[in-house]
Structure formats: structure tokens, C-alpha cells
Specification:
mainly beta; binds alpha-L-fucopyranose
């Protein structure tokens, strides 16, 4: 196994570092210290062609100006919060709005938009890149000085493991995820509508018109949200179900996982033969099928377009702070935050 360190660009005179981890199975993962962003993942298809399976750019300027959170770590809190206020320990904290009246993905200067400290460690069978960041008290409105770290591990079994740690000196909120857009066709040859997805989930959270969970858990039975035996994404894109329509024809929904670390999510592209299994200790996965991926920019040499990638954001549910019945995202003072998600790449 090998790791290559390089320079990706510069932001205000500060060098942005890139790391490419390579295993002995021809899998490569490249990430940068800006937003802990995964810029590419290269893996072989069934014929042995090694191609990139994520949306990303080759310059830091494009990440700063055009990126819809491509490959980045999202924090302090993933997803939308509305009203953008939190009452904690007798204080009301206002969280900056960055999507109409919503606070989205940790705010305008969330973790995707900061430069992290980084280091490498390596053993015979794995390489780890550790990113760490100290988020000061009241940064993006949130209470507490928070020390956070994210580790990307590439193993010789074609696993990319993401481990998150955090600790704060005040009670605060924390709900971290990674916002990689996958497209297993390879080098964005096709969109993701023919990808087949399986999710072990009996229920999903209903959304309102501003894409906020209403707090209602809906049954997946007899709906385009039933991924228990596998389904192509196109079904949700073409569906007349009101929940598929309000998100722009597709999915942008939190699914309640019925199992953890039991191959609970599986994504397949039959044409390339690539298959990805996702296992997590998080209670939910937000499936976002790139319904709003529109813009006048290029993603490497492909014009940005709807359904070009899909995100599998393992996390606690969005807007959890305003729904008592949803799992809490409170991180108590001096308690350790820990969560782990593993993406395994294989062939069908
Ligand atoms: C996802 C979605 C959102 C949003 C964003 C880019 O997490 O839930 O709707 O568009 O990412």
C-alpha cells in the first residue's frame, strides 16, 4: 500500500494538501484538507478498467465557488434546521441561514468550508489520513469549543472507512456525515438512474415543501420508497408519489435503518459490474439522488446535470432538534462523539 502527498492549490496563501491512498487491489482514494473532501475514488470495473466513481473537481477554485458539497464532511450538523435557533442550557443560539430561512449543512462556513490539520499513518494492510479541526465556541452559532477529527482509512479489502470523533467543552449539537456523490458507471459515463439500490429500511421521514422532515415516519410498503429488495433510482424519478415530486422528482429523504453493520445499504451498477456496500452505526441514511444538481459548470469534462450522482449520507435525522421523538444529536460537555461508516467496493 502506498500514499502520495501533493499540493492541490492555495486558499489565501495557504497550501491545500492532497493525499492519494492506494491499496494492492488497484483502489485509490484521493482527499484534500479543505473540507476533508474526497475528490476521487478510482476502482476497477468487471473488465478491470480503473475509473473514478465520485463527483469532484481538479482545482480548489471550483470547490470554493461551484461545489454542492461534493465529497465533503458536513458539520457541525448535517441537513436542514428550521427555525434556525437552538435553546440550550437557558441560552438561545441563532444558527446562520444559508438556504432561504433554513440553516443547511452547518451553515455558510461549515466544516466543508474550512481547512483541517492532517496527518498520515500506515500499516501493512491499511492507510489512514487523519483530519482534525478545532471549531471555536459560537462558530456558525453553535455553543462550545469543539475538537473534531475525521479519519479516512483505506484497507486492502477495498474498504473506505470513515471514523468521526468529537469532544466539546459545553453541551452542543453534533451530527456529522460525508457528502460524496457516487456514480458507479465510471468517469461519469452515465447518470445514476439505472443504479440499483437496496436499503434495509421499513420507514422513511416525510418531508414538507421546504424539504424539512415533518417528524412523521412513513411506511415504505407499496411505495417507491421500498428499497428492501432492490430498486432502480429511475422509479423514484418517474414516480407520481407526492414525496418524490416535492424533492424535484427523486429522493432526498432520511431512511430509518433496520439494521447496522449488516450490509444494510447496497448500490449496484450492472453495466460496469461495480457494487458498493455501506455499513454504519448511524440510525439513518439520507438518500439524495442529485435532483437539484443543475448549474452551468463542468464536473471534470462532464456538464453538471440532474441525477449525475447520488449521496448516501449516514447520520442522525435532519432537524432532529425540533422533533423530540427523533434521536437526539445533543453532545454533552466532555463526552466523546464517535461514529463510523464503511464503504466497501466490490463486483457483482
Ligand atoms: C443533500 C440534500 C439537500 C441538498 C444538498 C446539496 O444533503 O438533502 O437537499 O440539496 O444535499
Amino acid at each position: 500500500m502506498e500514499v502520495e502527498v501533493g499540493t492541490f492549490g492555495e486558499i489565501n496563501g495557504r497550501r491545500i494538501q492532497s493525499y492519494t491512498m492506494m491499496n494492492n487491489q488497484n483502489m485509490k482514494v484521493t482527499c484534500i484538507d479543505y473540507g476533508c473532501t474526497i475528490t476521487r475514488i478510482d476502482v476497477p470495473d468487471k473488465e478491470g478498467n480503473i475509473e473514478n466513481i465520485v463527483l469532484g473537481f481538479d482545482s480548489i477554485e471550483e470547490y470554493v465557488h461551484s461545489s454542492p458539497y461534493f465529497g465533503a464532511v458536513i458539520g457541525r450538523v448535517s441537513g436542514r434546521i428550521n427555525p434556525p435557533n437552538v435553546n440550550m442550557d437557558g441560552v438561545t443560539y441563532h444558527l446562520p441561514e444559508n438556504e432561504g430561512k433554513n440553516h443547511l449543512h452547518g451553515g455558510p462556513n461549515g466544516f466543508y468550508n474550512v481547512i483541517w490539520e492532517s496527518s498520515i499513518s500506515q500499516s501493512v494492510d491499511e492507510i489512514n489520513i487523519t483530519f482534525s479541526y478545532v471549531s471555536p465556541d459560537r462558530e456558525e452559532g453553535y455553543p462550545g469549543n469543539l475538537k473534531v477529527s475525521v479519519v479516512y482509512t483505506l484497507t486492502n479489502n477495498n474498504e473506505l472507512i470513515i471514523t468521526y470523533h468529537g469532544i466539546s467543552d459545553k453541551n452542543t449539537l453534533l451530527n456529522l456525515t460525508n457528502h460524496t456523490y457516487f456514480n458507479l458507471s465510471g468517469n461519469l459515463k452515465e447518470n445514476i438512474l439505472q443504479h440499483e439500490l437496496t436499503i434495509k429500511s421499513n420507514k422513511f421521514l416525510e418531508l414538507d415543501r421546504s424539504l424539512l422532515p415533518t417528524g412523521n415516519l412513513m411506511d415504505v410498503d407499496h411505495t417507491p420508497f421500498d428499497f428492501r429488495t432492490g430498486k432502480q433510482i429511475i422509479e423514484g424519478a418517474n414516480s407520481k408519489h407526492q414525496q418524490n415530486k416535492i424533492v424535484g422528482n427523486g429522493y432526498d429523504h432520511p431512511f430509518l435503518l433496520s439494521e447496522n453493520h449488516q450490509k444494510e445499504i447496497c448500490l449496484i451498477d450492472h453495466a460496469s459490474g461495480r457494487k458498493m456496500i455501506v455499513e454504519t452505526d448511524e440510525p439513518y441514511v439520507v438518500l439524495y439522488t442529485g435532483n437539484m444538481l443543475e448549474g452551468s459548470f463542468q464536473i471534470r469534462d462532464v456538464p453538471c446535470q440532474k441525477y449525475l450522482g447520488l449521496c448516501l449520507e449516514t447520520q442522525h435525522p435532519p432537524n432532529a432538534i425540533h422533533h423530540k421523538q427523533l434521536p437526539s444529536i445533543l453532545l454533552e460537555k466532555d463526552k466523546e462523539y464517535y461514529s463510523k461508516t464503511c464503504f466497501s467496493l466490490t463486483l457483482v
